[in-house]
Amino acid sequence: MATSALGQCNLLPRTKPTQLQSPRHPFSLSFHRQSLITSSSRALSIFTQPEGFGSVIDQKRCREEYQNRFQTCAVRELTGSVTSTQGHRFAIVVARFNDLITKKLLEGALRTFKSYNSEDVDVVWVPGCFEIGLAAQQLGKSRKYQGILCIGAVIRGDTSHYDAVVNATTSGVVSAGLNSGTPCIFGVLTCDTLEQAFDRAGGKWGNKGAEAALTAIEMASLFLEPLE
Q1: Active site residue ranges
Q2: Domains in the chain, please, with CATH?
Q3: Full-prediction pTM beyond 0.70?
Q4: What crossing angle do the helices spanning 132-141 and 161-180 adopt, rounded to 10°?
Q5: pLDDT for 64-90, tens place per residue?
């Protein structure tokens, strides 16, 4: 006896070959009636395989019947917009360390806010990237701003100090957003060389400060309505 997805199958010896069966294959297949039960949290579908050799389940009919039991509910899509910043107020937390880079990132961000008619922006300077998270969190908790943009630049050196600062800065910005409920946008460059930083602060790879500002505008728009 063999078992398949369609039921139990017995191999029955045949003593005499027929015209429809070659003597080289002295076995015939006989399917026993068996129910296949498929269940889920919402429906129970029962399909039955009929008796007789060569019977085939109408796959299309069964598939349609099964799918009809799982109708998809209406999906509500929410997305931010960059077409209007009316009523939005933003804050930019900027690290003074590596200010040759961070000033260029700040300039790109301010240009972006201005181009989208959002000039109600406060700039807050902190000593370095390590201090960005705390400042962003306090600004977010004040409920005065719809978005906080965090700008900094960390350049790899000869020691492991780079990794410590990058990890702390990243965690700080994430925690600031989660704890305050205000979107805190990560606009910190983490580069191996000074050249890479300049390339991303208005160089051949654009200005990441400007890109981060655009993200802040979109997230502020998304949070205008409660995400419930």
Answers
A1: 161
A2: 90-223 (3.40.50.960)
A3: no
A4: 10
A5: 665 666 555 577 777 777 776 777 899
